[in-house]
Amino acid sequence: MKVDRQEQDEARRERIARAAFELFARSGLEATSAQDIARAAFVSRTNLYRYFPSKVHMLLAHFDKAVQASRDDALERLHAGANPQLVWDRVMGRMADLGVRYRHLVGAVGQAVLGAGPQTGEEAPSKPSLSFPARLAPVDGLKTALTLGALVEPVLLAMQAQGRLRPDVNTVALSALLVDACLLALLHGGHRDQRDVLRDWQDRFSLLMYGALAPGVVVEGGQD
């Protein structure tokens, strides 16, 4: 019975996050109300507060699930013997596409992951309000940052195993740097399309990877 309750809670949580994201993608974070989300997810407003203290938490929950699906796909390809460079290109291509398609949501994700938290101009009210973008505790953004890092690191480890990266490279730290570079580029790049994002990222990655590559190895061009 307890397991059933946990499964029901998780299913309801996922339904809320998915419904919220669909509304955010269509209308934006600020224009979407708590009532809009509750109606789309077939729950009461009370249940929204029970599962998520803010709209940004809903956005991050859905984002984390999407990133995990990309990581599972990357791991499956790596385990099947795919070229890590091709897997890397696929991961970056998918992230670039999402970044352009949902550019109006990148700011909320980026601020949370980079540690700034949504800017409200004042402290959040004592009672949770989904129409008020409550500040995130550092742990909220950190969880998403770790999820993104866990997406990138397996590809770096595969490159390291092939001798393309120096054996002493800290792949966890390098993953975090690459994730930050991705988010900063999306936040400040003013890109027009996926190809534009990838060109910008390639310049940033070349700089970050320069000291990590094994002698004689060069950064290969990404998708173009």
Task: Give the gist of this structure.
The protein is an all-alpha fold. The protein has helices at residues 2-27, 34-41, 45-51, 55-79, 84-101, 103-113, 138-161, 171-188, 194-209. This is Helix-turn-helix domain containing protein.
Describe this structure in words.
- With 224 residues, the chain is mostly helical.
- 68% of the residues lie in helices and 0% in strands.
- The chain has a domain at 60-209: Tetracycline Repressor, domain 2 (Orthogonal Bundle), CATH 1.10.357.
- Helix 4 runs parallel beside helix 7, helix 5 crosses helix 6 (103-113) and helix 6 (103-113) crosses helix 8 (171-188).
- The chain starts with a helix and ends in a 15-residue tail after the last helix.
Tell me how many strands there are: 0
What is the typical, i.e. mean, pLDDT?
81
Tally of contiguous helical segments: 9
Overall, the morphology is elongated
